Amino acid sequence: MRREDMTWQYGIKGNDKGRVRCNFCNKEMGGGVYHIKEHFAWVKGNVTGCKEVLLAVKQQMLKIITDGKRKKVQRERDMEEVRRGYKNPIDEDEDQEAEFEAQIE
């Protein structure tokens, strides 16, 4: 079960799928919960910033966005490390078998 995103304290889901409405300025936008977070945090690019948002909410949303991006980068690094360090178990068995045979000769 997914946790309810705390962002919904400050915005509501619109009538159409993927639409959201800001509780501070009543602006409706597409893009779902991520875009409303950008709207609150004044992140440029996808939406305009909310002129009515409380400073504490703006800071909170910016932290959520940056933490999420940081976690994504770390996950990608971890996956790359796993890919680089991956060794086929069949190859490992063959290596161990070759070592064993060399030891008994």
From TrEMBL:
Acidic residues compositional bias, start-end: 91-105
Top-rank lineage group of the source organism: Eukaryota
Segments of this protein annotated with the region Disordered: 71-105
Organism: Amborella trichopoda
PANTHER family, per database record: BED-TYPE DOMAIN-CONTAINING PROTEIN
Protein name (Swiss-Prot/TrEMBL): BED-type domain-containing protein
Biased composition (Basic and acidic residues): 75-84
